[in-house]
């Protein structure tokens, strides 16, 4: 199915925000399941999401796609960050802090 189905906006629809990292998987699953959708091309991409207009009739199928593929998506205007991505960053910060602490301890031990 094409993403250029502007008429969805005039039918009973909902808006879904999908993170850019999941865009290709989400769109391929929508096409594979013959789900009609429209992408808002005029949307700002500052929050790394893509806004999709989807028919309410397809809500159950879309929920299944999101759950089965681990896609990060939300329907609100507030962006919910992916916790797994944040966990990786926090782990990196922890390793850097531990390395700096270890260097400071080694310097104080071997200082004359």
| Class per helix and strand makeup | alpha+beta
What's the CATH class label of the largest domain?
A: Alpha Beta
Radius of gyration: 21 Å
Question: How can the largest sheet be summarized?
Answer: 4 strands, antiparallel
Please, how many helices? 3
Name the helicity range. 40-55%
Identify low-pLDDT runs.
none
CATH architecture level-2 label of the largest domain: 2-Layer Sandwich
N-end to C-end Cα span: 73 Å
Overall, the morphology is elongated
Series of H and E elements: EHEEHEH
**Strand content bin:** 15-25%
| Total number of strands | 4
Structure in words:
The chain is of the alpha+beta class. The chain has two domains: 1-80, Alpha-Beta Plaits, CATH 3.30.70.340; 81-112. It contains three helices and four strands. The protein has helices spanning 23-32, 59-69, 83-109; strands at 13-19, 37-39, 49-55, 73-74. Strands 2-3-1-4 form a four-stranded antiparallel beta sheet, covered by helices on one side. The N and C termini lie far apart (73 Å). The model has no long low-confidence stretch (mean pLDDT 82).
List keywords for this structure.
17% strand, elongated, 2 domains, 4 strands, 112 residues, Alpha-Beta Plaits, 3 helices, alpha+beta
